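I hope you will forgive my troubling you with a question about protein structure. The matter concerns a single protein, recorded as an amino acid sequence and a row of backbone structure tokens. Please examine both parts with care and let me know of anything in them that strikes you as inconsistent. Thank you for your consideration; the sequence and its tokens are set out here:
***
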Amino acid sequence: MVEWLQANPIFYNKQMTSYKETGKKERMWTEKAAQLGKTVLMLKTWYSSMRTRYGRLKKNKSGDGDKEMTERDVWVIKNFDFLHPHIHEVQKKTLVSMKKKLAASDGLMSISGDELDENTDALSSTTTQSCAPSKRKARKETDDALLAGIEERGKNMMAFQQKMLEHLKPSSSDHERDAFVDWIRTVVNELEHNLWRRCQQDISSTLYRYIGENDKVKQQQSQVAIAQPIQFPHRPQFRPL
């Protein structure tokens, strides 16, 4: 999966013109899911969790060099480093957006640097001195709330990732059928309306025919099971001595 993702920057490089080709990306996801015997949802969720984990680890690594990483963390850093130039700016914008939302929820006003300078010049020195501690306190509360939210989100993502890893383990369910159904869904979504109507009729007719055949097979199996006599284990007859 890692090699496949790295070889297809269409999934993470927003500078590419093909990045917005959703249909093409969905077909690639479907083909890969069928190849691995997994569902498209499983592969997408795994990639999303690995991308998030990589971004968090890179941020922690640059901010806290003394924090020891697990063997799994080292593996993620090493294998997903190709994402670094594509998620750094996104994370920065997300952080700014979160700060704005938290500031708005606390009743803080969002003002530009020029407006702040103009308002500061208009205020007296006494007013500035009295407002400074209040602003610092509000900023600290905002930062604390932001960090708490990021930490909580990281914990939730780790728990979610663990669950997805469990789902990605090989199981006895029929993944080939799931992958085929996902492929049909992708193809149908790209059909023109008039073609979709014809396709719907053809698929429905085919499915109803196989449903009827399946019912006959089950009925025959049921009749054979009823017709077969129940055989009890042979017991030796008792003979008096």
Observations:
- Residues 98 and 149 are 9 Å apart (CA to CA).
